[in-house]
Design brief:
homodimer, 136 residues, alpha+beta, six-stranded antiparallel sheet
Amino acid sequence: MKQIGTHLVVDAWESPTDLLNDPERIRGALVDAVSAGGATLIDLCVHQFSPHGVTATATLAESHIALHTWPEYGYFAADLFFCGKGNPQEALEFLTNALQAKKAKITELPRGFEPEMTSDVTSRYDIEKEPIPVLQ
Amino acid sequence: MKQIGTHLVVDAWESPTDLLNDPERIRGALVDAVSAGGATLIDLCVHQFSPHGVTATATLAESHIALHTWPEYGYFAADLFFCGKGNPQEALEFLTNALQAKKAKITELPRGFEPEMTSDVTSRYDIEKEPIPVLQ
């Protein structure tokens, strides 16, 4: 696989309800998490839902961070996708601390693609062991 | 697990270089993919990098779609996170067709959290079988 980026998929819970329903604190936490991760913010959208819940998407020069909160469950979902420079783990540590999550499930996904098959037999075999869904 | 949403993690390649470097066509494909998925667009950011590459983040009432392209590899990464109404598979099918990807690896992740342990012994055992990292 040619890895292009690293994606942290985060489900975190046992966070304070009021914190997860406060768009300004979430905005601040996200901006500071971007800095903590050494990333560059291009655009930020923070939206509060009625009666509760906040969604925030940060478009980065390095890819993105997305955050969705469900205050009624003390739960938030975060995605931190970084390519190139920056450290998504640092950004995540800042974010989970700022949002006071006591529990989290974190999955690290390498993102990228399978280069074309070559005449190299070993490479071809490796690819065949993990078939790739073909669209169209 | 209490499932809150469904997240499609998509790595797709063998797309035309010029298409992946065209912010207006990507904007159009994303807006139409949101409609195809029956979702509601709150905000859209499309950014073109120099010398090539486009990032687009769509903030949805249902969560988000993020798209990052690397035209030099014919590769794009897409994330479609939907909660509540809407159909992320429909949105994805539209997007991969619009961007003419010939190959794709798609992973479907349920997003949500583990409810607190109860006095029920079976539930407790289930949770202990899959330990959850504890932060702080």
